[in-house]
């Protein structure tokens, strides 16, 4: 009866106080200068913060030496606003999936997202995005290869976009991807082509890139492959003649080099046709 009359005591459901926060988090460095016993690393990271030019960085060393803390502190100084930090920094720890799908989906999409060099209030901010990949050695081999390609491709794309913005060139983002693909990663060739095309066209679009570099449109390539699959030599002959008459830059270049593009295309098509027969 007494237990019924006396109300039960309320439980203390208050949130953990600052004293209950793990000391590892409580005393984690907030600035690069606070990273202890890593003088050489700190001096390099200071230059990164001062120049606001962030390359791809690889931190290695025994556990507990401050690898993750140094990376987080660097990002805190680059993106001082907490909202900007969460928007432009993606942290992946050891518990996350490390297969190739995480690179193709999560990392690739995050890297492709455009960011501004100004905040909504107009204040300047570093126009970069950062991916902190903790324990990168735990990634599978296919995921590491995919990540390397993403890093190389996005690095070139960023440089070319920066040149376009610096030269006040109106461009389609797909045109930059097309330029990188057709130039096969050659940065010098990409920049030279970019300068030449921009002098002839007011806006860079994929069609302009393909025309300048003499690349065949995708639909023409599909028609050529369809003619090869048909095993019909007359259809292949007609398709090759159509490509030759269009006068694409690569074909014209081979004429100047003394080659006969019609015979070369016909020979190539015949070889492809035979391969289709073998595969069937």
Give a brief rundown of this model.
With 280 residues, the chain is mainly alpha-helical. The chain contains 14 helices and four strands.
Describe the 3D structure:
One of its GO terms (biological process) is DNA repair. Keywords: ATP-binding, DNA replication, Nucleotide-binding. Residues 53-186 form the AAA+ ATPase domain. InterPro entries: AAA+_ATPase (IPR003593), ATPase_AAA_core (IPR003959), DNA_pol3_clamp-load_cplx_C (IPR008921), DNA_Rep/Repair_Clamp_Loader (IPR050238), P-loop_NTPase (IPR027417), RFC_lid (IPR047854). One of its GO terms (molecular function) is DNA clamp loader activity. By secondary structure, the chain is mainly alpha-helical. It folds into four domains: 22-78, no CATH class; 80-167, Rossmann fold (3-Layer(aba) Sandwich), CATH 3.40.50.300; 169-214; 217-245, no CATH class. It has 14 helices and four strands. It has helices at 2-5, 23-26, 39-51, 67-78, 82-88, 100-112, 141-166, 173-182, 187-200, 206-213, 218-229, 233-246, 249-256, 261-279, and strands at 89-92, 130-133, 170-171, 203-204. The strands form two sheets. It has a two-stranded parallel sheet with strand order 1-2. The chain has a two-stranded parallel ribbon with strand order 3-4. Helix 6 packs parallel to helix 7 (141-166), helix 7 (141-166) crosses helix 8 (173-182) and helix 12 (233-246) packs antiparallel against helix 14. The radius of gyration is 28 Å and the shape is elongated. The termini are far apart.
